[in-house]
Known about the structure:
The structure is a homodimer.
Chain A lengths: L2 H15 L12 E8 L6 H12 L1 H4 L3 E9 L5 E2 L5 E2 L3 E2 L8 E5 L12 H13 L2 E5 L3 H6 L7 E2 L6 H7 L4 E2 L5 E4 L2 E4 L6 H12 L1 H10 L11 E4 L1
Parallel strand pairs in A: 1-2, 1-6, 2-5, 6-7, 7-11, 8-9, 10-12
Antiparallel strand pairs in A: 3-4, 10-11
Helix pairs in contact in A: 2-7, 7-8
Amino acid sequence: MSVHTSQILSMLALLLLAGDRVPSAAAEPNVRRALFVVAEGVYNSELMAPYDVLQHSIFRDPNDYMETAIVSADGGPVVTFEGITVEAHFSYADAPRADVLVIPSTRGSMDADLANDAYMAWVNKAIAEAEWVITVCDGAFPLAATGALDGRVATTYPGDRERLEQMFPKVDVRHDVRLVVDGKYITSVGGGMSYEPAFWLVEHLYGPDHVAATARGLVWPWDLKTVPHLIVE
Amino acid sequence: MSVHTSQILSMLALLLLAGDRVPSAAAEPNVRRALFVVAEGVYNSELMAPYDVLQHSIFRDPNDYMETAIVSADGGPVVTFEGITVEAHFSYADAPRADVLVIPSTRGSMDADLANDAYMAWVNKAIAEAEWVITVCDGAFPLAATGALDGRVATTYPGDRERLEQMFPKVDVRHDVRLVVDGKYITSVGGGMSYEPAFWLVEHLYGPDHVAATARGLVWPWDLKTVPHLIVE
Lengths: 233, 233
């Protein structure tokens, strides 16, 4: 090693010691990508509530957070069940890998979406690649239709639990909880409770201080002990 | 009156008696128009949560419900605080009268929106015309800026109550409740609790059965007794 090279290495060491003033490999933020797959008639609350919880993660820790985005078939807008036109960020063709996949319910979650080959193909691929999958309300139906819930415990919108059982008899559907975590699959009841699966994941990934700050920001009394839930170890 | 005219009147009377099979003036649905005024950086939850509660009213009673729509400055899209592009239905110029005006918080509710003459002019006019005004989170700031809350009780996002008091000393800002109704003004804390002011109004206008069905549909434990609130008689 020449003197010249060792001097360079000393400078590099000083730069690394300078910490937050100098960008370094160690300071690269850990960003997970959370993708929300939508179809026509997606429900407002089921899309927006978990979106808010995950998106707000950047305000709690700029070095460890989620980037959120919406995926539609052609990358164009969809009209929500309630009649709001919402733009997507990606199409099935150009969407990157989802670290966290969120499947909100749509008008067609129990029928039209399941018969939509392009939707199911993208969902299938995204589920296989994702670190975590959240379903909100009837988003459990497309997840179950891929077979990913076979032999697993899950839940869905209270009024549609019997239908989930009938359509997917290999899924152990729970009627007494709002939130189920089985492996990487987080299923939940939806509606105004659509915040809960995202709070659970934020607490699991980022810890109690982060989730408490996010819950305070969203004026939400998050406390897993008060949520009827089941976590399969 | 000729015989001919009296025959026609008899037929009309029969048609009216035929009730629901024949459209008549008496069967015209009672539709209230709920308009949500948005600006850049509107918060997802504060827009979507009350939107859902009010929009779902059509499924409870097709003869007595609300039509919901979004108003932006030019009728074009806005990007929400969380990064979702949402289309408006009306511009300030072409928006009809709001029976119910909803003011969700935006990134600029405490400063930029208040300095935006076009926004404040439309809000001022809509407040004066509306039967009811709901503010969600910091939507209380533009409402207070019009003077409409002078001498009234109100609340806002918990972290911004002191600022509301400082900026608008004529408003009696409450720190101990999530929901205040004073006259036609419904102010609320926002975040995940953004459903509450809309549930209150639905119960007030449409009664306990309607609100119970809507709450069940949205998996929300609506019960005013469990909500810290103040109603000024």
